[in-house]
Amino acid sequence: MTPAAMVRRILFYALLAVVATFFALPLLWLVLAPFDAHPSLTVKLPQFTLDNFRQLGENPYALSSLKNSVLISGGAMVLVTALSALAAYALSRVRVPGRNLILYSLLLLSSIVTGTAAMVPIFLLMFQLGLIDDRSGVTLVLTGGLLPAAIFILKDFMDATPASYEESARVFGASPLQVLRHVVLPIARPGLATIAVWALVNAWGDFLMAYILLRDPEKMPAGVLMYTFYNEGGQANLSLISAFSLVYALPVVALYLFVNRRYGFRFHGGIKS
C-alpha cells in the first residue's frame, strides 16, 4: 500500500469515528442519564439511582400518556397498513387512466403540504367534525398524512407478486378478497411489516397534531407530555425528561427488534397452503 493510499484510509476511518461518535453520544446519554442522581446535558458515568423513575411514577399523567400514545399510534398503524394494502393492490392490478400521475401527485402533495402548512384547515375540519379533544381525530389526521407514502411503497411489493399465482387461485374458485388475503398479502408480508413499523414510529413521535387537537391532559400522548417537564422559567427537569425518554423509546425499539427478527425487512414471502 502506498503512503497516499494509507493516508486516505486513515482519514476515512477518522471520519467514520467522528460520525459514529456524533450518533453514539445521544444514545449514551439516553441510557446513562436516567440512572444518574444529578443528570446533566453531558455524557458521564452516573451516580446510580432509581429516584428518577420514582419521580416519574409519581407524575399523574405519565402512564396515561403512554397508553394514549399506544392507542393513537396503534390505531394509525392499523389503518395505514390496511388501507394502503387495499389501495396499493388496486393501483397495481387495475389499469386506471393516469394511475402513475395520481400516485406521484399524492406523494408529492403529502411531502409539500406538511402538518405545519395545513395546520389551520386541519383544525377547522376537525372542529366541524366534532373531533377536537378526541384521540380518534388525531389518529385520522396522522393516517391521512402517512397514507400516500405507504401506498407508494407497498405498490412495488404488489407489483412483484406474479399474476400466475392469482390466476391459479381464481381457477380454484377464490374470490378477489380471498386472493388478496391468501396469495398477495403473504408474499407482501415484509412490505406490510415495514409499513407498520414506519407508520407506528411516525405516529409515536408526533407532537404537533396532538398538541393542536387535544386539550384534556389525560388524553395527551407521551410526546406532548414531555413538553410539560419544564418549570415556569423554561428550565428543563432533566431527571424526569431522561427517565421518561428511556421509557418512551423502549416500545419502539422492542417493536423494531421483533419485526426485524421475524421478517428481517427483506423482500421475501410465501404462499399460505
Structure commentary:
The chain is an all-alpha fold and 273 residues long. It has 2 domains: 3-49, no CATH class; 61-262, MetI-like fold, CATH 1.10.3720. The chain is 70% helix and 0% strand. It is built from 12 helices and no strands. The chain has helices at 3-32, 51-58, 62-93, 99-112, 119-128, 135-159, 163-171, 176-187, 189-204, 208-213, 222-225, 238-262. The chain is globular, with a radius of gyration of 23 Å. The termini are far apart. Mean pLDDT is 85; it is low at 267-273.
Quick description:
The protein is mostly helical and 273 residues long. It has helices at residues 3-32, 51-58, 62-93, 99-112, 119-128, 135-159, 163-171, 176-187, 189-204, 208-213, 222-225, 238-262.
What's the alpha carbon Rg, rounded to whole Å? 23 Å
The CATH level-2 architecture of the largest domain is identified as Orthogonal Bundle
CATH homologous group name of the largest domain: MetI-like
Helix-strand sequence: HHHHHHHHHHHH
Could you tell me the number of beta strands? 0
- What CATH calls the topology of the largest domain is MetI-like fold
- Determine the fraction of residues in helical runs and give it as a percent range: 55-70%
Label the overall shape.
Answer: globular
Q: What structural category do the secondary elements indicate?
A: mainly alpha
- Taking the alpha carbons of the first and last residues, their distance comes to 56 Å
Major beta-sheet overview: none
Oligomer type? single chain
Tell me the number of helical segments per DSSP (H or I, 4 or more residues long): 12
Average predicted local confidence, pLDDT:
85
CATH class placement of the largest domain: Mainly Alpha
What is the domain tally? 2
Low-confidence sequence ranges:
267-273
Strand content: under 5%
